[in-house]
Design goal:
The protein is mainly β. The protein contains no helices and six strands. The chain starts with a strand and ends in a 5-residue tail after the last strand.
Length: 82
């Protein structure tokens, strides 16, 4: 599985991007560097089967600070196994 995303994060952390598989955190990005730049994340599944894949973007609603925080996914690619 591969996806390309970008997100904004402020100290706190405020603006955390997460990938969860079957309810477990696989990737948590609260990095403050390179905010707004595209990043590619890859995950290899250990075995074939059915999975629940979820994305979350967590932010606090703080007047004057949170309005411009956002996240975007450009693509998601899931390849089958042999």
């Amino acid at each position: 599985m591969e996806f390309k995303y970008r997100k904004e994060t402020k100290p706190g952390p405020n603006g955390v991007f997460k990938l969860m598989i079957d309810g477990e955190d696989v990737m948590v990005d609260e990095d403050l560097t390179n905010a707004g730049e595209w990043r590619v994340f890859r995950h290899k599944f250990s075995e074939s089967g059915h999975y629940v894949i979820s994305f979350a973007y967590l932010k606090h609603q703080i007047q004057g600070e949170s309005e411009k925080l956002n996240a975007e996914i450009e693509y998601i690619r899931v390849l089958g196994t042999k």
